[in-house]
Amino acid sequence: MDRRTARISRAVAAALVFVTAAYHLWWGFPRSLVYLNAFGTGIPPDPRPFLFVALGLLLLAGPYLVSFEVISLRTAYAGAALLLVGSIAAWVTWHATGHGAFLVGGPAPASGGGGHSHGGQNTVLLVLSHFPAEPVEGAIKLVETAAVVLFVTLLRLDPAVTTQAQQANGDQTEASET
Length: 178
Known about the structure:
mainly alpha
């Protein structure tokens, strides 16, 4: 991958991450405030708002940490890909388990969504059925999937990452020779 393509790919990946983080903060922050207001009255019926806010903040922290050289570009790419894969897996798990019914040991909590039933549906069909039923959720999951593909591609082909790896290997070789 040439440097220009890598730069464009980084910009697209950053935009996709920003969209994902903005959505998660938009959805999670107000709901977190409601649950915090009711703090001490029991277990919140839906843990997602707090997890959404945490994910959004972690995703937004990545570029900051890279720009101040707290973490390497390689670590940022891998971390972002893992966070986004985790988000997708959590979304599938949430819907495949009846909107988190396993958390409360009874009927599923109110999802705050459009209200739909899953029955005993196959997980793949279940996920596919959410694209027309919950178009915003489906769009965000497509954005996350595209970002994962870009981050994995950048992790393998970005010249800045391969240069860092070569420099690290050279430093190790020099240290072992002395």
